[in-house]
Amino acid sequence: MQQLERGSAASDIIAISRLSPIDRRVITHAVKEIRATQERMASTAGSLGIDQWRTPTER
Length: 59
Known about the structure:
mainly alpha
């Protein structure tokens, strides 16, 4: 809202320096969890044949 009030275009970019230390830790933890999940999914996808990518109910 502050961006719009200043006449700037709205953006989803956050200046880390404006966040509290707790918010920075939460975001850091979330990013690490996302990265770990992506790595697990890439590993799983790489070890399965394409016919195994379907959901169990589609088999």
